[in-house]
Fold:
Amino acid sequence: MTYGATQSAAATPSRLPYVLASSGKHDEPDIYISFAQAAVGPRWQGAGPGTSILFAVARPSSRGSVRLASANPIDSPLVDPGFLTEPDDVERMVIALGMVRDIGQAGALRQWSGAELLPGPKVQGDVDSRAFIRRTTGSFFHLAGTCRMGTDDLAVVDPELRVHGVENLRVVDASVMPSLLSAPPNAAVLAIAERAADLIGRPG
Ligand SMILES: Cc1cc2nc3c(=O)[nH]c(=O)nc-3n(C[C@H](O)[C@H](O)[C@H](O)COP(=O)(O)OP(=O)(O)OC[C@H]3O[C@@H](n4cnc5c(N)ncnc54)[C@H](O)[C@@H]3O)c2cc1C
Structure:
């Protein structure tokens, strides 16, 4: 959600503040909300003066895929992020939109928020909100889980990051996460790397 500027943006620290909230439809906090001192356009199409409250489903039900395009290893893989393929994610985004509208209209933020630009006053009710979300949703690029860790038949790596059925090969990155985290993933990727360094350095 984006507001027109009521004052010029001051110099800000580079890190965006964010909060985790719950849609009430998941066991974990599943709504990620961050605040930006810019009027961000849909699908990251530029930014102007203003403020934005960005929101996302941090624990999506939708699943994308990465598949081989051919037997040639040089060919780029077929990547389908599968955004919003599960209606449950759209419903949780509608709940999140309501949450950030409440936050945006809070008295404490009044000095920074002017008129609501996006979605704007014409978007009211669940039908309009769903259409707005399908039209404008982009990605935070927190991709994970394409080489999921586990002990079942479909898992790619075991709990020590070793690829099932292949000797001396580990995967050490966001792809081993069994599911997305509630928070941005970079710190967890570093933790996976630290753990892998211990495992690889362990004698025997
Ligand atoms: C625009 C953007 C903004 C982001 N902002 C945040 C944020 O604010 N906070 C946060 O926590 N996370 C953020 N993320 C997510 C975070 O950057 C990733 O989750 C994290 O970097 C994933 O780490 P990784 O090691 O799994 O993959 P990567 O960091 O992508 O590392 C993969 C590495 O493998 C190399 N590689 C790929 N293919 C091959 C190959 N065939 N052979 C050899 N090397 C190869 C690549 O060159 C790359 O260096 C952001 C991501 C993007 C794209």
Q: What stands out?
A: The helical segments are 87-104, 125-136, 186-201.
